[in-house]
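Q: What changes when S-adenosylmethionine is included in the input?
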Amino acid sequence: MNEKPPENHWHNRAAWDRLARMQDRLAKPARDEDFNNPLANVDAMGWLGGNVRGKRLLCLAAGGGRQGPIYAAAGAEVTVVDLSPAMLELDREVAQERQLKIRTVEASMDNLSMLDNAYFDVVIHPVSTCYVSDVRPVYQEVARIMVAGGVYVSQHKQPASLQSDIEPHQGSYRIKHGYYKKDPLPAESRPNLIREDGTLEYVHRWEELIGAMCASGFVIEALTEPMHAKQNSQTGTFGHRSTMIAPYVRMKARKMGAETSGKSKGLILG
Ligand SMILES: C[S@@+](CC[C@H](N)C(=O)[O-])C[C@H]1O[C@@H](n2cnc3c(N)ncnc32)[C@H](O)[C@@H]1O
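A: The predicted holo structure follows.
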């Protein structure tokens, strides 16, 4: 783990602060209807077993006023970690408006040293590993702060999607960046739904996204590729590109190991 944050930390922090201030589509706080049946709204697959009441739940890299408040409304004891103070401010605003209790922590996902060992029953981690150059310390930190038997739900950008052209060329999308690329991807010229404007993003290989998760002490119990393909959609749209390249992968993993936390004894989720 790095003592001094790398350059991409400050770059992405500023970029996400800007996106939050611009009310970007990924910085849209939860709406009234999201609170009607809160858990169903954020866990359509039922991976959390239909109940998070009283669970210690970490929304990792999930600021923006949506996920944290919804899980808190579902009865979880919620902590939100995010790199961006402006994204966290949205969580605090929504929590205050709706009288929900949420702890917000400004930190990078690859250094959670302010969080206790074996504390969280559930970690929810929306798409964001693309913003760090190395996923291994992220998984190691998540494993450290989770109880044995806890559930880790994460979503990631697929490598082929990050590697490929955003715009089509004669109806297809060419692979533009190497699979083993270590440097951040170059900026795209136009806003699009594949890359977030102004951020530094990295391609992670399957060996890293899945292999490193297993090596960090997780067993993967389920894996899906959220469907965004729209057959017969116009060439160049997100729906069309998704018929050729799946944008995301979502995984449910369980932390292995001997039970360490008194609170979580007998924990069964999902
Ligand atoms: C795609 S958004 C996810 C949150 C979104 N509001 C949602 O509802 O899913 C990605 C989030 O990751 C955060 N982020 C980026 N790099 C990070 C890092 N190194 N550590 C923690 N959070 C990070 C951003 O500030 C942003 O809030």
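Observations recorded in class: Confidence is low (pLDDT under 50) at residues 260-268.
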